[in-house]
Write a structure and sequence with these properties.
By secondary structure, the chain is an alpha+beta fold. It is 18% helix and 28% strand. The protein is built from 15 helices and 34 strands. The strands form seven sheets. A nine-stranded mixed sheet has the order 26-27-28-30-29-31-32-33-34, with helices on both faces. The chain has an eight-stranded mixed sheet with strand order 11-16-24-23-19-20-17-18. It is globular, with a radius of gyration of 27 Å. The relative contact order is 0.08.
């Protein structure tokens, strides 16, 4: 066996100074090596095999023929790296430079732990007593057995948890769509319970990856998948990935999950039997809050990928039954994995129980990570469907919170870039910014523990309490669907909004760019993009207001120049104004949602535009606004959970018909009603009634504290003034309670000033909030 140590780049060899060679590190027979005449390469040799690692001089191997091509035209991978700040914690030898592994001579390794026996196999053919008739191309778990069931769960010639497809929604040859089957893999044995399959950048897509299969001590297999796109080859701006498990002649072809009908936003989640009539018919179940649409060719041949079922799942797991056993696949809610199934994927009577994962707005050189778990356990009475569901559910519940920095990115985990409780405490205690804002995370004593008349967001619609963090994703989805139902649906977000630089000038310690941005289908607007001089990537903030000039200090409105001030502190800022330019008659195009929801939709597209910039760390993008902009920012953060944090300046954070400026009832916010117009602006009255979504919200007891809850656990600052007095804590305390349930403190803050206009002090607090929670790469003197 050859023994190697991961180098942190897993297949990227660093040669003389500025040259990077991407090669396949799959072990090669000694006679197959070429002379690698490049400084800085080394190999280790044992049993006639060698692995290159970037530590010593290159070996000289007579008679070999290895060609390293250094030109982009010949397929060289792009070296434009993404910021390390986005990378998830290392979990495989691909990302951990200190991980040691052995490379066996065989195509497979047998892992055993407790009641499980798993055979991890690469994508070469095998035909022996362990894997009889195993076909080339299939990899992952070639066999899975339990002490109580000695038959292989998977079709012997195929596999389970098999990395099947890489795609971008475009029509390609099958060899391209099934590239993980065809490109060479390296089997790495970590220990008696753990093995990996490493795949160098694939020939067409240029996706480098590593899968770690680890047996835990409770009948659980944990799969960690890490990948890095090395080339910009995905035409639709996203990476689609698909895994298949081919089940060998189970009693039932169906799967079971907790979900609800696609077309009933108010439905209480219940058990669903996933039945698909034929391959490609009603195959894929989305998460209840997954509103993403990915562009694809109409003739795209992988019918399981985009054809949807009539149901959505409310909890991120499902199971099927096999010969007295249950096989459950369990995911992290923020990954928004899509569950797929086929009744005949492995042949007649052999269903495929699958899943897929999308990486939108991918970045070359960025490492992405998916973690899932599979539970394989006996069931007491497989014929008792209700009893089996209850039994499996009880086993799955303790397994739902895994594979993330404490709680992203579950139950509902934070978006990438926000701090975990331990990080917040550690960084906050020593930070100057923390000293500025720490007093404002506690309400005044008069309002401590006071919740007002607001209905708790920790109650399901049927009155059942949310008892744990594992319950929260289902309740959050319930709230989000209700609000979207009331306000109307968004158009599909623009995965890669066009951003055109119209002009550029130097200003102080940053560049100032006039930009034209695609904010909605067939709709553009102009704004200002400010980028610091020093080397990024930088945190970024979207600044929303009536017009963008005020936000960058190019108007006479003082103390509202959030974009300018934050850029001076080392942030990229994008400042935009009302869609169409008239806040009282915003242009919403063909959208069918309320204007304020459309504003949030525009903000989501702005996030996508910022995230695509190489100067921006997409994990650290916040949103801020004052007054009208504060309403906009509040809805943006609540409805688009990729914003890492949000600050709102005196917008009126709850409905309040005693305050004329807290005017969510107006048709340019939530009161738009094509069938009924209000006689005049102003506080609702008998002769000037509520209209549109606002009327329904008030009648059904909705209030904005539910949107505050949707923001959790991301940091949320209210810079209060005339409209948001300290008494608003009775609403904010509900968001504090949600954060506490999720394991967070110091996530909801409120400052207070006398008037509506920001002050130097309130702005200093706001800037400190962003500096603390998003950090900055360059500060002005």
């Amino acid at each position: 066996m050859a023994e190697g140590e991961g180098d942190g780049s897993a297949g990227i060899l660093h040669a003389a100074s500025d040259v990077v060679l991407h090669i396949n590190p799959v072990t090669l027979a000694r006679d197959d090596w070429a002379v690698v005449a490049t400084k800085g390469l080394s190999s280790r040799r044992d049993s006639g095999k060698e692995i290159i690692s970037p530590t010593m001089k290159a070996p000289s191997c007579p008679g070999a023929a290895l060609l390293l091509c250094l030109t982009q035209a010949a397929g060289m991978y792009s070296l434009r790296a993404a910021p390390a700040a986005e990378d998830p914690p290392p979990r495989t030898s691909f990302s951990n430079p200190h991980a040691r592994f052995n490379v066996p001579d065989k195509q497979y390794v047998v892992l055993r732990r407790a009641t499980l026996e798993a055979v991890v196999v690469d994508n070469r053919a095998v035909d022996d007593d362990v894997l009889p008739g195993h076909r080339a191309g299939y990899h992952g778990l070639g066999s899975l057995k339990h002490d109580k069931q000695r038959r292989n769960l998977f079709v012997p010639s195929y596999a389970g948890l098999n990395f099947e497809h890489i795609h971008d929604g475009t029509v390609q040859d099958n060899k391209v769509l099934f590239e993980p089957r065809n490109a060479p893999m390296q089997l790495r044995v970590i220990d008696d319970h753990t093995a990996e399959l490493y795949q160098a950048p694939t020939p067409h897509w240029g996706l480098e990856s590593c899968m770690r299969y680890q047996l835990l001590d409770n009948g659980v297999i944990e799969l960690t998948f890490e990948c890095v796109p090395r080339r910009d080859t995905f035409k639709n701006g996203y990476i689609g990935l698909f895994w298949a498990s081919y089940i060998h002649q189970p009693e039932s072809l169906d799967i079971h999950f907790i979900g609800c009908p696609n077309n009933d936003a108010s439905a209480v989640p219940a058990w669903v039997r996933g039945v698909t009539p034929a391959h490609g018919e009603l195959p894929t179940h989305l998460a209840r809050d997954d509103q993403r649409d990915f562009a694809h060719d109409l003739a795209f041949p992988l019918t399981l990928v985009f054809n949807r079922s009539r149901h959505r799942y409310a909890e991120p797991w499902y199971f099927g039954v096999y010969r007295g056993m249950a096989f459950a696949e369990i995911f992290r809610a923020p990954d928004q994995v899509r569950l797929s199934q086929s009744p005949s994927g492995g042949g007649t009577g052999n269903p495929a129980w699958d899943f897929q994962w999308f990486i939108p707005n991918y970045r070359i050189g960025q490492r992405y990570q998916l973690v899932m778990r599979a539970l394989y356990r006996p069931v007491t009475n497989p014929g008792d469907e209700a009893g089996t569901r209850k039994e499996v559910s009880a086993s799955v519940k303790p397994l739902l919170n895994f594979g993330v920095k404490p709680p992203v990115e579950s139950p509902l985990t934070r978006p990438a870039g926000t701090l975990s409780p331990s990080e917040g405490e550690r960084d906050g205690v020593r930070g100057r910014q923390w000293e500025i804002i720490v007093p404002f995370f506690e309400p005044p004593s008069d309002f401590a523990g006071q919740f007002g008349a607001y209905r708790s967001p920790l109650l399901f619609n049927d009155g059942t309490p949310v008892k744990s963090a594992a319950d929260w994703p289902r309740r959050r989805a319930e709230i989000l669907l209700e609000w979207n139902e009331l306000m109307g649906p968004w158009p599909p977000v623009i995965e890669r909004p066009k951003l055109e630089v119209l002009s550029q000038t130097r200003r102080e310690n940053f560049s100032q760019r006039r930009v034209r941005l695609e904010i909605a289908p067939n709709q553009t607007d102009e704004g200002w993009l400010l980028v610091p001089d020093s080397q990024g990537p930088f945190p970024a903030v979207l600044v929303v207001y009536y017009e963008p000039e005020t936000s960058v200090g190019l108007s006479t409105n003082a103390l509202r120049d959030f974009g300018y001030q934050l850029t001076r502190r080392g942030f990229v800022s994008l400042s935009i104004g009302t869609p169409g330019g008239n806040a009282w008659k915003p242009e919403t195009g063909t959208a069918q949602c309320q204007p304020l929801s459309f504003h949030a939709y525009v903000a989501a597209n702005c996030w996508l535009a910022l995230a695509s910039l190489h100067e921006v760390d997409r994990a650290r993008i916040g949103v801020v606004g004052h007054s009208y902009g504060g309403k906009w920012a509040l809805f943006a953060a609540a409805l688009w959970d990729k914003f890492a944090c949000v600050a709102v300046s005196d917008p009126g954070i709850v409905f309040d018909e005693t305050r004329p400026n807290v005017n969510y009832w107006e048709p340019w916010y939530l009161g738009f009603d094509p069938a009924r117009k209000r006689p005049k602006p102003g506080i609702p009255a008998r002769d000037n009634p509520r209209t549109g979504a606002y009327r329904k919200m008030v009648e059904t007891g909705r209030d904005l504290h539910e949107l505050h809850a949707l923001i959790a656990p991301r940091p949320f600052l209210v810079s209060g003034g005339a409209e948001d007095r300290p008494s608003r804590w009775t609403a904010l305390n509900h968001a504090v309670a949600v954060n506490k349930l999720l394991g967070y403190t110091n996530r909801v803050a409120m400052t207070s000033r006398k008037g509506h206009t920001p002050t130097e002090e309130s702005n200093a607090q706001l800037y400190a909030f962003f500096e603390h929670f998003l950090g900055n790469a360059a500060r002005s003197p």
